[in-house]
Design goal:
The chain is of the alpha+beta class. The protein has 6 helices and 16 strands. Strands 1, 6, 9, 11, 13 and 16 form a 6-stranded mixed sheet that branches. A 5-stranded antiparallel sheet has the order 2-3-15-10-12. Strands 8-7-5-4-14 form a 5-stranded mixed sheet, with no helix packed on it. The longest helix has 16 residues, at about 230-245.
């Protein structure tokens, strides 16, 4: 039997322990791009890429198919086009209003003119520009297991064609999402001075491991909002680094049963 995994799209992750004012229109789960008519759902890699690989000598290789059978492609939901100065890291041209840049990108290394003559620089958050624009996209996928399972990991990796078509290097990562409430996201390092990501273009791939039989189903949750207790845990886990910097990985990377302090009960 396949391990069932749910996902819910969200726009931006919680940024602090204090949740957003419920009177504000800032519900991260309620976004126009999340509607059933607009959202482009992830697709199993073998299905999406079948036409490009079928007939090649490796196509029937069980090792190759085993790897990609557990992988899904995540697609871009809104077009993104940027030109920037490689020398300074200043973004010079976009397909969005600069004053609303956080709706489209989160700058990790770079600069942008926000409007009113004010420059926002990543050096304000301690990460100065170092020759390549580095950014994240706020379109996220929050994933969870409806049944309690141990040690289920997701690997977020580059789609094979993204770098060749855009010059964007995906910043790969993996984490145990069975116990770390952390949304999957797109993070890139730009090698060229301009790039364009079309709507519907692959952003990255998600590969799962650790489940029984190494088989998975990946489906969208039937409601826009995940269960309330998961939203609370997501908010706590996202804000933990603000209260205890640098300890999140050590807390979540191990999957150990709590041990009884009394030796005679072991």
């Amino acid at each position: 039997m396949a391990t069932k995994i749910y996902y819910a799209p969200c726009y931006h992750a919680p940024v602090g322990y204090i949740e957003q004012n419920p009177l504000d229109n800032t519900d991260i789960w309620d976004h126009p791009l999340h509607s059933e008519h607009a959202f482009i759902p992830p697709m199993r890699m073998l299905d999406y890429e079948k036409g490009k690989h079928e007939g090649h000598s490796y196509y029937e290789c069980p090792a190759w198919k085993s790897y990609w059978a557990n992988s899904w492609v995540v697609f871009n939901q809104v077009e993104l086009e940027i030109e920037y100065d490689k020398e300074s890291g200043m973004i010079q041209k976009t397909n969005f209003q600069n004053a609303r840049f956080r709706d489209h990108i989160l700058l990790n290394e770079g600069k942008i003119m926000e409007g009113g003559g004010q420059v926002w620089s990543s050096s304000y958050i301690g990460t100065p520009y170092k020759g390549n624009l580095v950014f994240q996209m706020p379109q996220l996928l929050f994933m969870w297991l409806p049944k309690k399972e141990k040690n289920i990991w997701c690997e977020l990796a580059a789609h094979p064609e993204t770098f060749h078509e855009t010059g964007l290097e995906y910043i790969a990562n993996e984490y145990p999402f069975s116990r770390w409430m952390r949304p999957a996201n797109a993070a890139f390092k730009a090698h060229g001075s301009k790039f364009k990501l079309k709507r519907g273009a692959p952003l990255y791939t998600i590969r799962f491991r650790g489940g029984k039989n190494n088989a998975y189903s990946f489906q969208r949750y039937e409601k826009p909002h995940p269960p309330r207790e998961l939203q609370v845990r997501l908010n706590q886990h996202q804000a933990l680094k603000q209260w205890q910097p640098g300890i999140s990985w050590n807390l979540f990377k191990k999957d150990e049963e709590p041990k009884c302090p009394y030796k005679f009960w072991k």
